[in-house]
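User: I'll paste a sequence; please echo it back and then give the predicted structure.

Assistant: Echoing your sequence first, then the prediction.
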Amino acid sequence: MSSAARASFAKTYRPVDTSDHRESVSLRLPEQHDTESCDTFIVKPFVVVISGAPGSGKTTLAQELSRRLHVPQISRDDNKTGLHVTQDSNDPSEVWRSAERAFELFYFVASNYLRAGVSVMIEAAFHAGRSEADLNFLAELGTCIHISLITPTEVSLNRYRERALAGQRHPAHNDLAFAEQMESGSKDINVYRLDLAAPCLKVDASYGWSPGLDAIAEFVISSR
């Protein structure tokens, strides 16, 4: 999320289409260096960043790890789905309609959890070269711990294609089109390989997790 987008979102958060007169919701996004509230906590909260290509298993790991560590999970895709549901947007061609706003809301929720002293688990298809600034902002509010899922392209593609064909997600995610782009090579999945200035554990998610869930949880606990 750009600085301009953050400033705009800080002032007001409005649905894309207000023609139906639904009530807009005003939200306050913390200023980029507003860490005052976190300074009052004896123990600093932590934020676990789970990254990886589509189909690498980010959501599955985030769900299991959040239960293991007893911290809330924040999913960018869940935010995007909720925005489309609110707007009755079911057309796959509208895939980009709430894309930017979903990320804005994602960072808004995560930053306010951290400012309140709540540790969080966040997962999204973070893009290298675009996501670092916002993730570094969260790292100012809480100790950042990076879990990077490494999955062979073919494995990720098969998972993504199966999910798309099964219609497991809201149609506005347009999973079938993205699966075709991944298969054709027009979508470069290397863009999802993040390099953050934070403790990082690389996890082979080809078949299960290696290292396993216990070791991943221990890495988070020892790194916080």
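Residues 128 and 193 are 6 Å apart (CA to CA). The first helix runs from residue 3 to 11.
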